[in-house]
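Weekly modeling sync, notes
Attendees: AB, CL, MP (scribe)

Item 1: holo prediction request
CL wants a bound-state model with glutamic acid before deciding which constructs to order. AB pointed out that an apo prediction alone won't tell us much about the pocket. Agreed to run with the ligand included and paste results into these notes for async review.

Input as submitted:
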Amino acid sequence: MSAPVGRFAPTPSGRMHLGNVFAGLIAWLSVKSRGGSMVLRMEDLDTQRTSPEFAEVLRKDLQWLGLTWDLETPPQSQRSAVYNRYFEKLRDLDLLYPCYCTRSQLHNVNAPHLSDGTYVYPGTCRHLTEEERQTFGRAPAWRVKVPDRIWTVDDHVQGIYTENLATDCGDFVVRRADGVYVYQLAVTVDDGEAGVTEVVRGMDLLSSAPRQMYLQELFGFSHPAYGHVPMLLATDGRRLSKRDKDMDLGYLQERVKPEALIGLLAYSAHLIDNLTPISPLELAKEFSWEKLRKEDICLDISPLLG
Ligand code: GLU
């Protein structure tokens, strides 16, 4: 088997928090423990929230942690012409239709909602006639039709996860009304073109995997392996987010050494038996997916801050 290819896909909208660091660490360990390579890609589709300055800080943060990459591919904000080609492929397959639903219509109580708050698109605009489409007088979003079929993700951490896109998701948007391509399409194209064989990221993205597997199949890419790692929680049980300043790298870099931080993450995730500083390179020697804790991780950084 050829060497695995993994990826870091950060969104440059602020400093990394420890949840991002943790997912990046596991992605790196999995690939590097098997002699593979890492691709870095800035996910800056949302140009309002992201910036090249943050991207530069993220690169420095990864370097500081010892999480190296072998290749950086162009940021998503520069790839709309490429995404366009794949969008046209969907059109050729007769799988696209324009959607004029407004935000409030989409959040209408009639639409079934899933446990995570997202809704199943009921196909409102799927069968509009050309005349009906003309009456809206505004640019539509574009949805891809999904088949009534079960997708199975065999996840390194979560085990078997299945979804029928028709009943659990509905036709989903691939291009917004303002012309911006959405995450699901961009990430599928980028991972596919970069030859990524393993996608490791936070558990919150597990339900995106079936949509991406569907697009991979349509675009002719092989399915990568998946590992959706546990979320990190603050000591009060909340999920870490970019708002937790004491958990972001800007704050932590001034107070702790990278090996101490990696050691705490590895120990909390059951990768090592004792709380001790360790480098990613050392950790890679003994990495295995079996050891990794499966439940959310409550992270107490106080031992590091002394
Ligand atoms: N850009 C996403 C993030 O920063 C990650 C997406 C992915 O790994 O597929 O959370």
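Recorded for review: The radius of gyration is 20 Å.
Action items: CL to compare against the apo run; MP to circulate these notes.
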